[in-house]
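Look over both lines before class:
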Amino acid sequence: MELALPGVPDSLLDRLRRAAAPARVALVGGAVRDLLLHRVHRDPWRGLLDLDLVVEGSPGAGSCGEPAAHALAHRLIREHPEAVGSHCFHAAYGTVELELDGVWLDLATARREVYSAPGLNPEVAFADLEADLARRDFSLNAMALVLGEEGSGRWQLLDPHAGQSALEQRQLAFLHDGSVRDDPSRVLRAARYAARLGFEPGAEALGQIRRTLADWPWAWRPGDPAEAAPPALAVRLRMELDLLLQREPWPQALRHLEAWGALALIDPSLSGDRGWRRRLHWARRLELPLLPALLAGAADPAAAGRRLQIPARQLAWLEALPAVRAVAARGPVSPSAWCAALEGQGWGEEAVRLALACGLTPRRPLLRWCGRWRHATPPVSARELIAAGLPPGPALGARLRQLRAEHLDAHDHV
């Protein structure tokens, strides 16, 4: 197969071939999928942020048992120092991030993965290219383009899992019937691809999603401690959510999850949530991250946030929601009373904005506090009060707060 990679010079590919010989080195993942969609199926070219490459075996002599990707990178650095820019080795995974001829490469050593229990991180061992493709999520991501002979511009397409057929049918197909059981975060990835590429899960894939969710094979249930959740229902799920909400057409992706019954992976109580569209719409208007707004619809938002290991600041907003709602329920009668109730609690102004995104009322004083009242200052300064004879100390602070409150109430209303 003769394919040109837009933006990738032939010199880069020739350097890789020579440095990897006699081992196979292959382009894998989304780059292969998107290139075939563009060249064969005439989809728009989406561009490449970097290239994912897998190298097999131990390239070159004297690699001393190091991972194949590390050996390849060391050889490139040694033989082509002028072409290699920044680089970073990751010993735990046998991977390297490397800039070659101005293009960023992610070099990985071919490996196989085995899941000892549903949702746990897999056990990894270095293997051949075919095993590396077999560990992937969907057939359309389980293809590889193996670099051909130097200067030929040709690639050998490896497609052991009918990825081309999936592209032609515009379907998402898992590689085996335990794919969701092993890693439920793949369901969120399916929603991302469905939203971005316009693909749909085939009947078998959709059946697997629904059967696995009904069986719930993971060693965690609602109400269990957050730390008991396996990684695929915790930090790995959160990472997929971050990508879904930050990089994808998220309304479509969330609609897919809703239709598949898969919002339960984020939190089982979200299965019946009909307010997520409004919350996320308002979160965007109020310049808030979307993830805490999504979790705010859970039965226990803070518990969901702890399980997913969201940033501590965002978790604090979710933890503050009941207290913010309690303030609003009391309904302070003046601007200064609203300020006294909302300020000094350690919540952060974002907690109030999140409550507004959730539909908290009365909206007018809450919006005014966010936009205006909280920025108000006393009409006179501490220096002026001291000059007038009030000594520094607690009484000075109390007087400044009193003057600020009087000024607010005189110039605004609830």
Notes: The radius of gyration is 28 Å. The longest helix spans residues 312-330.
